[in-house]
Amino acid sequence: MLCATTLWAGEKRHGPKAIEVKVSLGTADEEMKFVPDTLSFERGKYYKLVLHNPSSDDHYFTSDSFATRIFTRKVEIADASGKTVTEIHGAVNDIELKPGATVEWFFYPMTKGRNLKLYCHKDGHEQQGMVGTINISGPPPFTK
């Protein structure tokens, strides 16, 4: 994971400070769930969604309806030392995290949505309870 002071310093050059939201995909004791399983975002605000997989299994963060309602600025992937080794730009529909991995997704919510489906599409994980809900509320972004 990136050092927060380094990340914030870099982000300040490019825009506002991101609101950090952390989500675990699975648990260290192998429970099939998102923690937390309900996420809420407000349109026009800038977010850093920190996804972490503490389990020993691969997991996906998948929400097609969420992906179509946001503007992704970038997704950052760091190595074990915390150095950013990859940035992804453009539309992102789902993210797979290997055991122990952490990914940071920077985005602006653009369109309202209630009870958007979040799930892990790895075989059987959704059926075992790895589901959640995403809500996007608030006034239109970037209005005068």
**Which class in CATH terms?**
Mainly Beta
N-end to C-end Cα span: 36 Å
Helix content: 10-25%
Helix tally? 2
CATH T-level topology: Immunoglobulin-like
Strand order of the largest sheet: 2-1-4-9-6-7
- Total strand count, please? 11
Succession of helices and strands: HEEEEEHEEEEEE
Task: Provide the residue-averaged pLDDT.
Answer: 89
Tag the structure with descriptive keywords.
144 residues; Immunoglobulin-like; six-stranded mixed beta sheet; three-stranded mixed beta sheet; 10% helix; 44% strand; globular
What does this structure look like?
It is a single chain. With 144 residues, the protein is mainly beta. It has a single domain (4-137), classed as Cupredoxins -  blue copper proteins (Immunoglobulin-like). 10% of the residues lie in helices and 44% in strands. It has two helices and eleven strands; from the N terminus they run H-E-E-E-E-E-H-E-E-E-E-E-E. The chain has helices spanning 4-14, 64-67; strands at 19-25, 34-35, 38-42, 47-52, 59-62, 70-78, 84-88, 94-97, 102-109, 113-119, 131-137. The strands form three sheets. The chain has a six-stranded mixed β-sheet with strand order 2-1-4-9-6-7, with no helix packed on it. A three-stranded mixed β-sheet has the order 3-11-10. The protein has a two-stranded antiparallel ribbon with strand order 5-8. Mean pLDDT is 89; it is low at 1-12.
